[in-house]
Amino acid sequence: MNWIPLSIVCSYVILLYVITWLTRRLSRGGMIAYLLAGRSLPFWIIAPLLTGLAIGGASTIGVAERAYHAGISAGWYNAAWAAGALLVGLIAAHRYRQLEICTLPELFEKHYSVSGRVIGVMGQLVLQLVITSLQYVAGGAILSSLLPDVFSFQTGMLVTAVVFVGITLIGGFWAAGLTNIVNVVFIYAGVILGAVMAVGKVGGFGEIVAKLPSGHPGFDLGAIGWGLIIAWFVVMCTTVFSVQSIVQISFAAKDSRSARRGFILGGLIILPVGFISAIIGVAAAILHPGIIPTEALPRTVLSLSPFVAGIILAGLWAADVSTASALLVGSATLVVGDLIKRFVAPDLTEKGERVVSRVSVLVLSVFTYVLAVSVSGILKTLLIGLTLTTAYTLVTLMTIFWPQVCRRSHATWTLLMAMVALIVWLIFPQLQSSFQNIGLPHPIFFCWMVCLVTFFIVFMLDKRRIQVPN
Fold this sequence. Notes:
single chain, mainly alpha, Sodium/glucose cotransporter
């Protein structure tokens, strides 16, 4: 019966390409038109664009995997993402839109130095390329797990790449935003249908509580540990302020009000997905005892009817495709805006910008695909890698809200010391143990301490204030 879910997935892909083709004219123009949607995105596109970026394989399969042993508390991962989005919407999205810039490293050169921009773009590119590579891996895992007779892991990765790279190449940021409306519908349809069917197979929530293995935390919201939950909130609330693919959404809004409303609405949409996915993982602990936790969601889906499995499969894959498209656009914007236009070809024509933007998307997609094929352990290091955003967030927020204390060398030294702090954390396990003993198990806490101390020292030693426009 593989043809039923496969037909649903194929129909979903065709729909995405139809939308992309019909809207391709919206991206005609230079870099701003192609990579920032002409700075004209309304809030009702910003919200699903942000939601699609936030909800990927980690938010669905990853949460269900953790919930298999840790219960419903695994859903806090997405709640942390939602909190970050709401926070940006309330205090920063409208300010980002007013800056009239394309990238955060551009802001660093404008107020600090060229070296701050160069270091900033290199750190952002490393971070975004690793996250993009994860999307190939997640896409391959989804297709090969749920349609093993049709896709191998390698062919699943390749098909995933063809879909989201094709959408991005043809339609740019407009296509990413409009297709994410469809993606979010499929995501919610998939996880809600999966949770309802899984709970129904067990016999209802009451039966889940009664049948859970001894010692399983079930619906205990704090079972995963409040230290880890707090770390998730700190990481995500730091990340959303300073990852290029996220803040670029606010740069592309048609006005400040749209940026604010889009982020707030997106945060509200993001919030429930993790807990819904966690319900599937909890039900899987009863339906499929003794399996590898990674298989919690795929095994549950495979046990359902082919039509239902097809809807869920399309939803899970939509989560991956939606994340990858926005990441690829963000990375291309960094390459074109901060490297090519700044240092190589500053006088590009509008047509030249469009060509270079498309070539950048293609080159980056090939590079990240090779990285995904050859590098292992990406998923394990993802949350640690996000620690680098501490420096970006600190410098960006201080520049916007408290520029009087900012000095010309703040960007360079704060970014460098964040990188050094992460390397020290990874090299010295004794440091990790010390922080774990005081209830701070994630490197984000150590990096925040290092960045704050660095910022204070630079403030004391460097007397050159940054330039603050009226």
